[in-house]
Amino acid sequence: MIHVLSIDDEPALLDLTRLFLENTGEFAVTSAVSAEEALEILKTRRYDAIVSDYQMPGMNGITLLQHIRGAGDTTPVIIFTGRGREEVVIEAINSGADSYLQKGGNPKAQFVELAEKLRQIVRRSRAEGALRKAEARYRALFQNASDIIRILDHQGRIAYDSPSAAKILGYAPGSLEGRNPLDFVHPEDRDRIQSDLALVYKKKNPGTPSEFRIQKADGRYIWVESIASNLIGEEDVDGVVVTTRPITERKEAEMRQKKNHEELFAAFEQLTATEEELRQNYNELAASEQRRMETDRMVRASETFLKNIITDVSEGIVALDSSLRITLWNPFMETLTGIPSLRVMGKRLDEIFPQSKNTGILAMIEQARTGETVETADLPVLLNAKKETPIWVRGIASPLKDHEGSITGVIGVVQDITARKRAELALQEATRELHESEEKYRTVFEAKNDPLLLADAETRRIIDLNQAAEDLYGYSRSEMLGMTLLELSAEPEKTKEVLDQRVPRVALRYHRKKDGLVFPADIALAWFSFKERSVLILSIRDLTGVQQIGDALRIANVKLNLLIGVTRHDVLNSLTLLLAYNGFLRDREVDDPTRDLLEKQEKALLAIRSQIEFTRTYDDLGIKAPVWQHVGNTAVRAYAQFIHTISFTCETGDLEIYADPMLEKVFYNLFDNAFRYGEGVTRIRLYGEVDGTDLLLFFEDNGIGIADSQKSRIFSRGIGKNTGLGLFLTREILAITRIGIAETGEYRKGARFALRVPRGAYRLMK
Hints:
Elements: E1 2-7, H1 11-23, E2 27-32, H2 35-42, E3 49-52, H3 61-70, E4 77-81, H4 86-94, E5 99-102, H5 107-143, E6 148-152, E7 158-161, H6 163-169, H7 187-201, E8 210-215, E9 221-230, E10 240-246, H8 248-264, H9 266-271, H10 273-312, E11 316-321, E12 326-329, H11 331-337, H12 349-352, H13 361-369, E13 374-375, E14 379-381, E15 391-401, E16 407-416, H14 418-436, H15 438-447, E17 452-456, E18 462-465, H16 467-473, H17 477-480, H18 485-488, H19 492-501, E19 505-512, E20 518-530, E21 533-542, H20 544-587, H21 592-616, E22 627-630, H22 631-639, E23 647-650, E24 655-659, H23 663-677, E25 683-691, E26 694-701, H24 708-711, H25 726-735, E27 740-743, E28 752-757, E29 762-764
């Protein structure tokens, strides 16, 4: 029998839950009408599972769950609620809920699902309890073993050390975890044990024990015997288990026996000393050769790495020997000059480029050969004979040294700075033109109605302002001249960040007037050179009135949505009861007319519930401010929510429009409309066209289309075979940002919805 505690503030739902669960014969149900009553019951009784409503007066279901988990109670909990929002589910799972179930739908199927979830989480909870007991027994045996038991991870480090290791070796418990066990093996035994351990990791060791010396905490070595088993991939272990026991006494006896044996053969060893010496010399020579081969390998790897850098770098690299002849000419130099490396190797630079004699480059190379690093100015040169236009380059020359630090030549880096130089020249030309239009600028500056500030770009001090700026901030002109922009800001750190990053526009920033009043502002910024100094100009727009109106509208919407949400929750609970009771009545023996009435009643109740559930999707309509949204990405997200074989082509590129955050729901409704009513639709296309100053965004399919008699009615409330609200709410979402929608397709050739986006509400991002 599974004992369940059921919690809900509606007694009728409590009775319904108890009635269904106990009728299965598997459950015994205790009911509580509040979270507080449930906590009192849990002080004296334990249950196999808890089922709790979410929305209850006083303490809600998630707060109750947090109390239960905070008290250390691990009883499985299911949140059984009418709130289906994603954030409620996430909060329930994060608070320790084992599962959740949403109210609504067919009551019988709903309670069948609840019963199955209860069976699953109780079975899992009981299995986890049995597992914890088994683990406790295993750990007790493991930690009280007299031998040292270690688990090595995939990299051969100690992942676990049994307490017996501290007793035998003298190290602090757990202090060796994360260390390499080979670090404590006697140097004479280390290579052999490393080889044995490698065979274990390769699963080629049949379980043969290994004997070696291991160092204790006091520095002494003792003899041990180890047997290792590879359990990598095994659940709860996933490593190599090594069992080690001390064998010092046995080993000392063996060593005494060995010593006696050695004394018997001492004479023989003296006779073969010369042979042994030769063998040792051979071994040392072999080891030396091995080290030399390893050194050669490392050098080759280093050379390969350096070669890859030189080959792939986007700068020209040239190396010259002590005679200033070319020894390195990387691929970028080949691209830059059009000359392959085979034609330049071993030649002097002035042989390849005779014009270099007049540029000072040869003198710079000679200077680098003396030990200095030198740079050229920006130079216009014609490096590629096949091209008529010179390019701009910058050169860096440094001494090339060998491993002993002696200068053996020169290495040079050639950077192609043509793009940067052209930009600088263009900027100089723009600056000249700006100087010529200074008088025109002064006239515009003084005549501008918006507040304008002119500030030094380096010090951020105000050097000029118009009358509108004096009126906005409340300072006199003489007071503001010399103030910094940070002194006007109510958030100077953010303002400093904007100025440092040269952001061209800030949609919302807070400034402070002379009387201390803080106000929101929309600020546009521009940097330029003015009277031989770098300055920036700021255009400020006071958003106080706009923000107050927006805040008032959002608060009103939030309150309305809260009221609608509470009402919807209560109505859905009542509908659930009615559907459940209707189902119980249908299961009884009634006459045919009564059964027919019950079926009609159930259809009506389901229709009401569907319409109420549909409104949940639009809770946030108009609450959040409009934002710029990528049309293609938003449409693709909506399209991905359907399972179908109809193709979709989006041809809007990087188009963005300024719309309510529920724009994705607009495209969802248009897709849903095509899938439901577009007979014969196999293809859907989204594209845009400019119409005067507006943008027309077309959503069209190749189905049967919409009859002319229906085109004026499809955006009306209640029109359609489903809820009748989809296209109605689509029009309302778009209207928030003055985007219109109309059906302009031709009947029997396909439907086409045209979204008219006004000027300023669309842009093409690069």
